[in-house]
Amino acid sequence: MSFSLLRTTPALRAALRAGAARPVAALSGTSFARGQATLPDLPYDYNALEPYISAKIMELHHSKHHQTYVNGFNTALQAIAEAESKGDLTKAAAQAPLINFHGGGHVNHSLFWENLAPSSRDGGGEPSGALRSAIDEDFGSFDALRKEINAALTGIQGSGWAWLVKDKTTGTLSVVTRANQDPVTGNLAPLLGIDAWEHAYYLQYENRKAEYFDAIWNVLNWKTVAQRFEK
């Protein structure tokens, strides 16, 4: 998928002006094949994150929920292409909410899977090197970062995400939240995202979402976070 070409078309520009620019701008590292978004393979088995995240949750989350975002995003892109062929900018602009929701869902989950790893491999523990130094400088300690992220997750009303982000200009780290599937874009680079949607935990933790927020730290992959930080 060449978004540089898509951005030059009148129909897509109309959709972006209507509010679809955020996920499109975030899709540079997301998987595409033959002009369509594709579901990325996981770098581990569905049961690899147990007991912290069950195999059933991982299977449903990846193969059903993420696939739904991929399908919805592709459908919206197809509708924009059809509208462009007919010169119907109004129809193209009407796809903006779907591009934002499904495109954002694809972006966020693609990054989320890379954020995780089995505790027997790269999951859990604490970051080191330049990332750890930046965490200590901007949050005071790793424990303080963990508390701030968990508080942000707990404070989300409904569905959304909490993110550790880096300011692209200053390099400063901070924690932000996004509602629903809104991706992190603009001058903030997403380093670590934690999914606070019920589909990420309810099958195992039911209404005890705070337990999920604590448990997921055992399978966070700080190596991938550090790689994003150092870019």
UniProtKB/TrEMBL annotation:
PANTHER family: SUPEROXIDE DISMUTASE 2, SUPEROXIDE DISMUTASE [MN], MITOCHONDRIAL
GO cellular component: mitochondrial matrix
GO molecular function annotations of the record: manganese ion binding; superoxide dismutase activity
Role noted for this protein: Destroys radicals which are normally produced within the cells and which are toxic to biological systems.
Highest taxon above the source species: Eukaryota
Family: Belongs to the iron/manganese superoxide dismutase family.
Pfam families: Sod_Fe_C, Sod_Fe_N
Annotated Manganese/iron superoxide dismutase C-terminal domain residues: 127-228
Chain ranges of the Manganese/iron superoxide dismutase N-terminal domain: 38-117
UniProt cofactor(s): Mn(2+)
Enzyme Commission number(s) of this protein: 1.15.1.1
Name of the top EC class for this enzyme: oxidoreductase
Protein name: Superoxide dismutase
Keywords of the record: Antioxidant, Manganese, Metal-binding, Oxidoreductase
Binding positions (Mn(2+)): H61, H109, D195, H199
Catalytic activity entry: 2 superoxide + 2 H(+) = H2O2 + O2
